[in-house]
Predict the structure.
Amino acid sequence: MSSKGRLFFQPTSDDTLQYPCILYKLIDIPTNAANNNHYIINHQYELTVIDRDPLSKLREAVVRIPMCSFTRSFESDNLHHYVFRIYD
């Protein structure tokens, strides 16, 4: 399902991507528990910036987000992919 603009949450094959764009998906919900209750519930997302520009300004903006860490990069079909982990 896509949102307005170029930000897509768990995109499907029906979504038409325009570059640069950001794709993100939920990858984990780690919790801390005590006394049979969850007292800390976090969400972990994988966020991918896709851009034709290898010096992407969008990549540089994303890396400044609090609780964000860069994990890897790769190229595919002349597009540069920058993968991050973000926690809430």
Q: What stands out?
A: The chain has one domain: 7-87. The radius of gyration is 15 Å.
